[in-house]
Structure formats: structure tokens, C-alpha cells
Here is the input.
Amino acid sequence: MFQNICLTCNNSKFNEQRFLQTDGTAQGPHMSCSYADIAMAKYDSLANEFHLKPKIWKRFRDDILISWEHGLNTLPSFLEHLNSMGKTGKITFTMEIADENGLEFLDLKLKIVESKIRVDVYAKPTNSFSYTSPNTCYPNKNICNIPKGIALRLRRICDDNETFDKRSLEYQNYLIARDHKPSTVKHHFSEVRNKTRPEARLKQNRKEMVSGI
Here is the structure.
């Protein structure tokens, strides 16, 4: 019953008109992410059925990062194999191949340096960095947690101190431009700077366990 409601009763309002979504499910409802994962899980199995296997297969919803070591000439065949399950036209995969400038995947900037994958934070050119301003009616505790949360995110992503320090300056300026106190922002970023990436990730894992995410 609940599944039918989520899949058939999603509606939205735009320009004083109401629209009913008749195909798929919106990403707003709590269950929509679970439905997306269930629908996409079959592709995890499908990838293993191909005679050549990617060394890395990391999927987040319908975005997939792979490491392919079998030559570029065999990659189109693998893509065709994945799309063979989507002949109904519901899902069609496209492919982007990393070059000397690296590759953007979600909020990550990946680049191979000396045979190692280096990780930096990535933001779309359209990102306005409009973080919640302290001048809003949000509780002070929530406002104070914004700079620390951003600093922890950068620490989890950036894989060396030089990259973290560079991004820290950028994101501190974004926060200060949104009227966050410079002293508070610098304090949180300095505090997180002393943590290692595993320590920053451990904090996130504990939060997920407590919240049940």
C-alpha cells in the first residue's frame, strides 16, 4: 500500500498548477532512495556477468565509478553490456573517461598522479555556495555546526594537507561571505585540520549509527 502511494501519488506545485508524476518516483520522499537502490542493484550483478571485470566498481544511485584495465577498445562493449538490460528505454548509461585533467565524480575530483588516485573536492560551476546565514531563524547550535560540518567534509575528501589547506581557504571565504563570524569559522577549520582523514570518517560513521541512516 505504502509503495503504491510513493510510486503513484507524487505531486508538485509550479506556477499555481499541480502536476502528478506518472512515471518513476520523485527523489523527495524518504523511500525514493531505497527504491532507486533496489532498481539499480541488478546492474551490480550484470557487471559481474561480463567476461572482463572492472577492478573498481563503486556505485552511488545511478552514478558508477569504475577502474578499467582491459584497454579502451573493450570499454564500449562493456557499456553495451550494461545497457542491454535497459532496452525498455528507462535507463541508458553514458560514459566519461578520465584524461590528463582527471575526472569529476559526484563531489570528487579524481586524478592519477604517480600511479595513485588523488582526491580533491569538486563543485559544479553553477554552485552558488549559499550556505545558511546566521541571520536566519535557525537555532544557534545548527548555525555553529555548519562551518565544522563543511570542514569535516573537506577533511574526508582531500587526501593530503596541501589540498585541504587550499580548499579550506576557499570555503572559509564562502562562509564569511554568508555572514558567518571569521573567528568562529577559522576556529572550526583549525580544529578539523588537526584530525586525520580516518578520524573525520569515524565521526561520520558514528553519526550514521546514532541517527540510523
In short: Helices lie at 2-8, 32-49, 75-83, 140-157, 161-177, 182-193, 197-211. The chain has a mean pLDDT of 84.
